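HUMAN: I'm a chemist; might I ask for a sequence paired with its C-alpha cells?

ASSISTANT:
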Amino acid sequence: MKVLLIGLAALQLGAAQPAESVFNGTWKVDTSSLSFPAKPDIILLANGLYRRGGGDDPMIKADGRFHRTAGDGYIDEVAVDILDRHRVRETDRLRGRIVYRTTYSISADGGTMTSRTSDLTKPDGKPNNSETISKRVGRPDRAAHLISGSWQAFKLNVASSAYLTWTLKLDGRAFSSSSSNGWGFTAIIDGPPAPVSGDEGGMKSVTMPAKNIIVETSSGDGVVGGVMTLEVMPDGKSIKATARNVSEGTTRTFMLYKQ
C-alpha cells in the first residue's frame, strides 16, 4: 500500500507529487524476532584438524596458521587456535585482510556454546561485536575436542546499533540500503550487480516483484552467497525479512520496524 504525499507547492499548482515508496525511511532490526535455521551447525575438531560445515567441506590444520579454504566471496583463509579444552578461536581473512574473529567457548557441562564474533569488514574500522548462543544436539564425541558436534543456535546479541539500523530508499529505479558505519549500496532494479561499500568484493543485485517487495541477491567473486527478501507489511511500519544462505542451505527470518 502506498501513501500519497502532496506537497504544499503541488497544492498551489494543483498537481500531485509522485508517491513516496513504502521502503523509504530508517528501519531497525528486531533481534528478538530472529528465527534460527532448523539445520544445526556442525563442527569437528579432532587429531589437529578442523572443519565447520558439512562432511564434504575440507578439513584444515588447527595450528594457528592461515590455510586456504573454499572461497565463498567472504573469506578465503582460516586460522584456528586451540586455546584450551573448552575454547577455540577462528580467524578469517579475505585477500590477506582479517575480516572476522570468533572465539567459541563451551560450557563446563559441554551442553552450551557461546560464539563471540568481531566483524571487521565495515568502512568505519570499528568492530561489530555479536554473541550467538547455541545448544548441543546429541552427545559429544569424547575422542574429539569439546567444540565438536552439532549445535543449534537459539539466541543472538548484537552490540552495535549501527549494524541493526538500516536506511532504505527507492528513488525511481534506484534502490539503496545503508547504515551509519559506512556499509551500503545503490543498485538499479533489474540492473547489473552493484558494489557494496564495506564488503570487499561484495556485490548486490535487486529485483522488485511487487511494490512492497524487494529481493536482494548477494554475491562475491561471481558466486551467489545469499538472497534476502524484504516485504513491507500492510501497516507500512514493519518489514519481514527472509534471508537464505545459498551455500549453507539455510533460511532465517526477522522483522524490521520503522523508526
Notes: The CA atoms of residues 1 and 234 lie 6 Å apart. The two ends are 18 Å apart (CA to CA). The mean pLDDT is 88. The chain has two domains: 8-33+162-258, 41-159.
